[in-house]
Give the backbone structure.
Amino acid sequence: MVHHHLRFHQLRQGEDDEEAQSLVDECGNAAYYKRTRPKLLSLIFLSLLSCCFVLAPCLFSFPLHSFGEHDSLVAEMDAKTTLCSSISNGTICCDRTAFRTDICFMKGDVRTHSSSSSIFLYSSRNTNTFTDHASSISGEGKGSEEEQLQHEKIKPYTRKWETSVMDTIDELNLISKKEDYGTHHHCDVRHDVPAVVFSTGGYTGNIYHEFNDGILPLYITSQHLNRKVVFVILEYHEWWITKYGDVISQLSDYPPIDFSGDNRTHCFPESIVGLRIHDELIVESSLMEGNGSIRDFRNLLEKAYLPRIRSLIQAKEQKELSKMNEEQRPLPPSLEPVLETGKVEQQQVHQLKKPKLVVLSRTGSRAITNEDLMVQMAKEIGFQVKVLRPNKFTELARIYRVLNSSDAMVGVHGAAMTHILFLRPSSVFIQVIPLGTEWPAETYYGEPAKKLGLKYRGYKILPRESSLYNEYAKDDPVLRDPESMVKKGWEFTKKTYLDHQTVTLDLRRFRKHLVSAYEKSSRRSHFRS
């Protein structure tokens, strides 16, 4: 795809050179002809000057508002100085240098037009004076195209290298026109803050992709606007708004707009179309205004979920109080006078001092078949253990409440490991890594965990701990050399290692990891108390 892109650029350069040469020839011939008429010297001078103005942008300029991956300027730029970081009014500027995503900026009189999948920018700048002159020479620029000063296309989703998923994303037209054409495109709703336009299509529905491809890039792109921004969403889903509404409210003070479902013309002073993304589940401080980090994002989650958590606690207390009233018990046992022996109090204090371990449980593929024995072993080591089995309908605030109050988490590699974002810094995270999943496990969750400030430990299972051990010969490369086998491609990896493997932990071997986690968690728990 990169080679094709580079070849296309070379062809375009060739076309531009030929066009420029034709203009040189034409202007040169005109000058020669007029030199035979001295009485027209003033006209000759004006003609030459006009030719210079026409040729200047063709011969000596480079694209100011649309860049490709071939641009060598990117490597020379300061980390925080991105393309399109400063644009003039009435301008569309698209940064297409990133491998993962394209992003465009529109500044001025920005108006939506959902029925044509377009966003228009009406400009008072007479930016096409010379373009019109050149078109008149070549006989081009007739019809509706004459109205457009600039036309960009973009799919505002952060996996642009992945053709299969990008084919499912709605494409937007970003069109700049002269101000006069805006008289027939009236504003129905005027906003005095910028818009950020993005898609919740693609892999939305998978917790990892929802955060990695959507929520985190939205934070990266919009946090500097300090909530003074309107989110305009393509492929809008009510369930997504319900699920992430708490987080969205921390990024914007305004209700989001369904681009396709709202046919009104929304007008903005500026618009950012597309989202920036840094890496897997991460925020790179060096690329952020104000040096924001993944921990700052984690603090935003804290603010987002805390009100809901408080309401859950109050609801639980109210339920217990109602239950006591029904049973005509004035006080629960925990509030009655402590017995002379003090055993109740001692038990409560002892329980509070135990570090809390959360086991993020799976069913089906990559499940731990002896999970009950592992949980029992963890309790014997000294943990309070909570087994959490979230599904796509589980409220995120409830999951956050459990993990935010824990000291350690154990889980098998998979999308649910995205919940490491809910762990407090210095918590212990043990990721069980099945055969054939080492690279994605470390890349998608191991490295981000370290940057989150977690005490991370990857537990790579041995062949005998995999269900595949009973299906393949002991010297089969599926068991002996998974790294070479995953090179066969995604379909083979998914079928063999992701969808058709369970884990039976070697408890004696895994115990060492739990003991280490307990020691680290105990010191952390003691320090907090």
Observations:
- DSSP finds 15 helices and 15 strands in the chain.
